[in-house]
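SAMPLE LOG
Freezer: B-3
Tube label: C17
Construct: single chain, 307 aa
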Amino acid sequence: MHRRYDVRWRLTGVATRRAGWVADSDGLSPLAILNGHWPAPSPRPCRDVREWLEKSRADVLLETSSLDAQTGQPAVEHLKAALELGAHAITANKGPIVHAFGELTALAREKKKKFFYEATVMDGVPIFSMFPLGLPATFLQGFSGVLNSTTNVVLTEIEKGCSFDEAVKRAQAMGVAETDPAADLDAWDAAVKVAALAIVLMGVPVKLEQVQRTGIRDLSAEKIRSVRAGGMRYKLVCRAERRGDGVLCSVQPELLLASDPLANLEGTSSAIRFDLDVMSFSIIEHNPGVEATAYGLLADFLRAVQG
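STRUCTURE (predicted):
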């Protein structure tokens, strides 16, 4: 039990590509698993997420599978299974927001469970929870920001003299870029984040294909370094702006003056500016690590179990 929050918890299931579906309703040892000591294989291993959830008798699912920008799977099915079986569903995967937000929200309401997703954009920064709790009776007109860490690192490393490929390898060595960095370099990750923010915060069912998307591959290293020497910087900028009943969304490299707050972001830092009907404000996240994403999941867990 965590005394500060009066929450009793037990880890009853872990699922990974390597270990498969591991479940024990009596409880697993988090410390042992973190140190690579997995339980002995079950004579009847779980075959799928539903059997795993039933065997673990889960009250909460923390879903952290890799993003599939085009379908949101398998995360969507994982979250649906959890809600249908009576568990709160918490995810760090933004795909389900873009591809199944309405369905998952309605299902959570029907089952009287929580569907939370704070860690999907800017890790543990409380963006999604901030609006209903801290900004009631406001109207979000648009937002702009730098929301993809990989491209930020790559552009910074190129400015320092690296080639494009060398910069990507450095981002991979830092643990920021995936083995296949295409989703970041071609702006799919950023486009999904823009759509997710527009869907949840602006209430418009934006489709991924409606986001105007341009990645950073066509920027030459020489151009990136030359504009930096002239007091400007390229950043992959995300934007959304209301147009009538819809929202115009885009992600593309933009040339920014050094005085622009977005131009000053280094490393894995990210930032977003929200333009409301009554005010505008910005949030900057400074060089987050994996702990920041974990915090987002933990915050959602506490919100879910404490009602």
